[in-house]
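Fold Annotation — chain and its backbone
Encoding — discrete vocabulary of local shapes
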Amino acid sequence: MDRAETRVAIVEDGRVAEVQIERRGKASVVGHIWKGRVESVLAGMEAAFIDVGIGKSGFLHVDDVVAMGVPKRKRLIADLLKKGDQIIVQAVKDPMGTKGARLTQQLSLAGRFLVYVPFGDGIGISKRLDDDERHRLRDICKRLPTDGGGIIVRTAAAGASAQELARDLASLNLLWKAIRERADKVDTPALLYSEADSSLKVIRDILNETVDEVLVDDPRQHERITGFLRRTSPEMADRVRLYEGDAPLLEAHGVEAAIRSTLSRRVPLASGGSLVIDDTEAMTVIDVNSGKNVGRGNTQLEATITRTNLEAAEEVVRQLRLRDIGGIIVIDFIDMDDAKNRRAVTKALNDALESDRSRTFVVEISPLGLVQMTRQNISDGAREIMTRACPACGGQGFVVSAETHAIDAERQIRLLIGASAESPVTVAVHPEVADFLQADGNAALSDIEEDLGVSIVLERDGSMAQGSARIAGAGTGSSAARRTRARSRSTRSDDVPAEAVAE
């Protein structure tokens, strides 16, 4: 941890599985609760936009509106909300790109062992727990006072006593009471409840008997975490240790290298194969390549391909977690002829996904070797936080070549000099454009001179845009040289054609 950001890493079996980066002033708002005002109701989308005071208005779908006694299939947003209404909402997804936060009125308050749902009902138990533990916890929760709400028992509740569960629920009930009291006193928009930061959230959500230790390199953060555990799970407090090693904490455990690896498209596999990960507007595409993995001895091609795909299935899940990739994901495994092998790869993928805390849905692998899946996405991953769109290409991933710029500049030179210019003419261009015009014995430059009947002197100017030209004609009789600037077309395909502008 440092002043600029807090970083949390989860290491499993010696490898970095997840990374969370939270920067000052840009923390996640997932879990925050506001008293907001309805800005607009869009009947065509069955949704409303809510002003919660964080810049972009949040999005609230009709299915996320709390309307007691009204069946979901009969709900119309225009019947439930109108402009100017004041409502309590919670963020379930961070603002991303041009979109505001995704909101819900179905609030949930997370504790160490339980999640309290004020407008819910019934008891839900984590499916990660075995059947015997689920039955034990359900029996305990049936006797707890829910004050008309519902509760969800978390995986961390494994082995928890009735007293611990009751204390957790009582704390959440007090929190809900405080939120309602504050909502009655404040004007909209107003923040009613702020979710814990990333470090405390990870401790609350995943610290259990399977976690060997928690290392913290900041004394103040260490005290916060241990103080939280002393109140909620005293038996876990001694697993949190203040790191005092010589090397930086994340460097010593390979986390820095893992974070940097998320910026690369290509991910190497131990067998010699690789993954290539590309983002598009609609989905993430992951391609599996065999690379140098050609098998050994008399190994058949199908067996080699299957082993590569099985290895790739595990690494794909690790990358999904490490990069926090969400939305629609298409994985292009290497084609396998045997349906049994395709089923084995799908099973390996599903088995690996059991360690993923985000909700996922996987479609069976197709005969073409494609797997379609979705993964819950609630906030930006490490790459989105650490990078920005390239100013040269605008995030497209490519730039116009120097040769194209040079050809554009050549057209502009012909246009600007014209047939009436007096020789010689000095033309200032980018050095790479000059190299192109002077290649092959000044072939391109000589053609221009011959066509226009002038002598051209090239001047190299590294400060100029590659596709631009600045021309000064000598011998015009003017004390100030005539200067004309050409603006070549930009790298963006939707720009207007280049035009000459005289100053």
Observations:
- The first strand starts at residue 5 and ends at 12.
- The radius of gyration is 31 Å.
- Residues 162-185 form the longest helix (24 residues).
